[in-house]
Design a protein that fits this description.
The chain is about 40% helix and about 25% strand. The strands form 8 sheets. The chain has a 5-stranded antiparallel beta sheet. A hairpin with a 2-residue loop joins strand 28 and strand 29. Helix 10 runs antiparallel to helix 11 and helix 16 packs across helix 17.
Length: about 850
């Protein structure tokens, strides 16, 4: 393989940092030396030119020989053309015909698979030859040769060759390239393009740097497509596009013209050009005046990929190539040929041929692995696993894991095992034992397979034992996360039990043991441990495994641990643990019993009715704020018992409620006034009872208490005539805020009057509106047709013969009768009623229309 060294632009400073950055940049191309038959040929001879076809290569040498080679460089055919240097070889598109010219003036054009051919000797060296791309077709038997002039050869209808001069007088023709109908050639003055279809020369691109010898720095030509020509000459590059001229611009001008879309100077001498998508591949020779470059580097040919810009370029990559005898070569000794079909680039030098090709995904992965970028390599392999040929995703992954282990990044290495090892049980077990050897079993534990793929139970038990030795919390975590089927449960239970002998109160081990018992369906033992530890999962365990029969004698422990959860659980499962059983268990813990019965009452006021009498004392003792709501909502508690308890404890509000409920409202009102001394509450109580005698008692009690009188004046205006209260106030009594109270009474009175008047106006307006609506409705006409029937005889309301005399009566209720079918008139003379509506008591319907004919 050819040696390649990453290059840099000659104008850049050479620093350690930039060299380090360059070394991290991935090359765009890969290189290999064309060997096999080529090696033997170039040992005895030297390459002078080469032409590339998709199927084979044609190599010309300095000793006048032409060799046909396959793509791998194996010799397939040899032609002895001349004793001197072969200058150029040309192939048509089909690869069936070849044109050769040599330094002694010989030109040969012949078929590789036929006997037809053209042989001519000129008296001067012929530098170039180019066949028409479709030379195999009989209509395109054309080729050009160039020495001191450019000649076009065409075969006429008599099968004879006709010669015409396309150009002369500007020095030696040094290069020619034929694409479709366009021929481009270079001489000492510049580059010309000739349109063979119109037989017109369409452009002349002048040579830029005339100080350079054209024989030492020859012009490089390359067609990118049928209309784009790339010119490299000395240190300049131009990209020319052939375009059609508009009809209005034709006059005496050629039908096509050339536009230079990009032109720029480089810092090197160009030896060859080739397209790569929208970029360029350039083979160049470094300028000799670049003194800051190393001598060895300067003498090597370089292959660059550049991005052309309108007036410059951007370097994408640069590789310096170590070809054989590069120290002896000059710019003119190198050539660049490319195969469009496979994107292969051939760097030809006298003693060596190097093939450059675009790097594929395997090459990309090779580079990443070489740079120890294993993660990126693994990602690239996973994305392109269908396209890679030399690599396997799993092998790259294993290399990545090995690298991480060597680095000491055990956690990342273990995490990658999950993706890399997949379902390969053998690889998994090997990795586990490797991690055990380096003392890192804990790192791999959380990534072990635990789904469809499972390792041998001994693997999981080994890791659990490792955690049990040094990390109880980690051990507990694995027990929670791993399914119980992964390992022998009894073995682990025994191991935990042995450790508990040394530390019997370790809560972590006890909790883990309870979980192991749960996996083993020994729920009673798990329940005992949870209750002893007062563990929050005890309720979940009971629910999940229906252990209600096992907790009947442990109700106090459960409620005492978490009152809310325990009581909710007991109430949700009354069918499994009865209310009587719970009350019996909690009888010695009245504070817990109260919580249970209170929640039961909140859920259903009737379920625990037999315990309502007991609840009165429990509320009074532990939860007085809820006693009054309980007394209000319960219809089963004995009022006498409740009154006794409330009076003993001097619960005034509760006593007032009970007295009012038992009908002793006067005593209740008296307690409010005397013990609570709260006139607002007394007024509210009187409003609730709506009893005139209570109002009288309230007024009598308040008449000698000015603050109470103020409260009454402010509140009783809508229930009792305030005059009754005002008449009973003693003269000279000082009443706080009396004026405001009197003003409020008057305002309340005025408000009542306004409300009555407003209601009256609304009532009158609504009545009038409805009356008008009824009148309009009754005045409307009623449609009578053949579909209507008499409500008495059920015959059609209209006779079949409209010429007959008939009489019809239609009521406002829309019932219709033949006049003769109507019953006799009612009690009121001249007024007729609908007997159907009258029978249904929907109000009378008087006749509104009588139709006669």
């Amino acid at each position: 393989m050819a040696e390649v060294e990453k290059g840099r632009k000659p104008s850049e400073e050479s620093t350690d940092d930039s060299e380090e950055e360059d070394s991290e940049e991935e090359p765009k191309l890969k290189y290999e030396r064309l060997a096999n038959g080529v090696t033997e040929i170039l040992q005895k001879d030297a390459a002078s030119c080469m032409t590339v076809h998709d199927k084979f290569l044609a190599l010309g040498t300095h000793f006048g020989k032409v060799f046909l080679l396959d793509i791998q460089g194996n010799l397939t055919q040899k032609f002895e053309i001349s004793p001197v240097k072969i200058n150029q070889i040309s192939l048509d598109e089909s690869g069936e015909h070849m044109g050769i010219c040599s330094e002694d003036g010989k030109v040969q054009v012949f078929g590789l698979y036929t006997r037809e051919g053209f042989h001519e000797n000129f008296d001067c060296p012929v530098k170039v030859v180019a066949l028409h791309p479709r030379f195999s077709s009989s209509s395109y038997k054309q080729f050009v040769t160039g020495g001191n002039k450019l000649l076009l050869y065409e075969k006429n209808w008599l099968n004879r060759w006709k010669t015409s001069i396309l150009h002369e007088g500007e020095g030696t023709i040094t290069n020619v390239q034929w694409r479709a109908n366009l021929i481009a050639w270079a001489n000492n003055m510049g580059v010309k393009i000739y349109d063979i279809s119109t037989k017109q020369r369409i452009t002349n691109v002048l040579r830029d740097n005339v100080s350079l010898r054209p024989d030492m720095y020859p012009c490089s030509l390359c067609w990118k497509d049928n209309s784009t020509l790339i010119i490299g000459w000395g240190s300049s590059i131009k990209i020319c596009v052939v375009k059609e001229r508009g009809h209005t611009e034709l006059r005496d001008l050629p039908s096509r013209y050339v536009e230079i879309v990009s032109a720029f100077e480089t810092e090197f001498f160009i030896s060859g050009l080739a397209p790569l998508a929208d970029q360029l591949v350039t083979l160049y020779f470094v300028k000799e005046n670049s003194d800051h470059m190393e001598e060895e580097f300067r003498a090597r040919p370089c292959l660059d990929i550049i991005q052309p810009l309108p007036e410059g370029y951007e370097e994408i990559s640069s590789d310096a190539l170590t070809v054989r005898n590069f120290q002896e070569n000059e710019c003119r000794d190198y050539r660049l040929e490319h195969s469009e079909g496979e994107s292969l680039y051939y760097i030809i030098s006298p003693k060596d041929i190097v093939v450059a090709k675009e790097r594929d995904q395997d090459d990309h992965i090779d580079w990443l692995l070489d740079k120890k970028k294993y993660e990126e390599a693994l990602m690239a392999a996973e994305i392109s696993f269908k396209n890679i040929k030399r690599h396997e995703v799993q092998k790259i992954g294993m290399a990545y894991i090995n690298h991480l282990v060597e680095k000491g990044d055990y956690d990342t290495a273990a995490r990658k095992c999950q993706k890399v090892l997949g379902k390969n049980m053998e690889l998994w077990e090997n990795e586990v034992y490797r991690f055990k050897t380096i003392g890192q079993l804990k790192a791999i534990s959380q990534y072990l397979p635990r789904g469809d793929l499972r390792l041998r139970p001994a693997i999981y038990e080994m890791i659990l034992h490792e955690f049990l030795k040094s990390d109880y919390e980690g051990f507990a975590t694995l027990i929670r996360e791993w399914p119980g089927e992964l390992y022998n449960n009894m073995t682990i239970v025994q191991a935990v039990t042995d450790h508990l002998k040394k530390d019997p109160m370790n809560s972590t081990l006890l909790t883990t043991l309870a979980e192991l018992y749960t996996y083993d369906q020994r729920y009673d033992r798990a329940l005992e441990i949870y209750l002893r530890l007062r563990h929050k999962d005890v309720y979940q365990l009971i629910h999940k495994h229906d252990l209600f029969s096992s907790i009947e004698d442990k109700i106090v422990l459960l409620v005492d641990f978490d009152k809310e959860k325990a009581v909710d659980m007991l109430l949700d499962n009354e069918d499994k643990i009865s209310i009587d059983r719970v009350v019996e268990e909690l009888r010695d813990r009245p504070e817990l019993l109260h919580i249970y019965l209170h929640k039961l009452f909140k859920r259903d006021h009737h379920k625990g009715q037999r315990y309502h009498e007991r609840q009165i004392g429990l509320y009074a003792e532990y939860d007085r704020p809820n006693l009054l709501p309980f007394l209000r909502d319960s219809i089963h508690c004995p009022l006498e018992k409740a009154l006794e308890i409330c009076q003993e404890r001097n619960f005034v509000e509760e006593t007032v409620f009970l007295l009012s409920r038992m009908g002793n409202c006067r005593r209740a009102l008296q307690m409010i006034m005397e013990e609570l001394e709260d006139v607002d509450k007394a007024i509210e109580f009187a409003k609730e009872q709506d009893d005139a005698e209570l109002w009288e008692d309230l007024i009598s009690y308040s008449i000698d208490k000015p603050p109470f009188i103020t409260g009454l004046l402010n509140n009783i205006g809508t229930h009792v005539d305030p005059i009754l209260l005002i008449h009973r106030i003693k003269e000279g009594m000082e009443i706080p805020n009396l004026r405001d109270s009197l003003v409020k009474i008057l305002q309340d009175y005025n408000l009542q009057i306004l409300l009555r008047e407003g209601c009256k106006k609304i009532l009158v307006a609504d009545s009038l509106s409805l009356l008008q609506k009824m009148h309009r409705t009754q005045m409307r006409g009623v449609r009578v047709d053949e579909e209507n029937i008499c409500e008495s005889c059920h015959a059609s309301i209209l006779p079949s013969d409209m010429a007959q005399n008939f009489s019809v009566v239609v009521f406002h209720c829309r019932h219709m009768f033949h006049k003769e079918c109507l019953p006799s008139p009612g009690m009121i003379p001249g007024v007729q009623f609908c007997n159907i509506c009258s029978a249904k008591r929907r109000g009378p319907g008087s006749g509104i229309l009588e139709m006669k004919k």
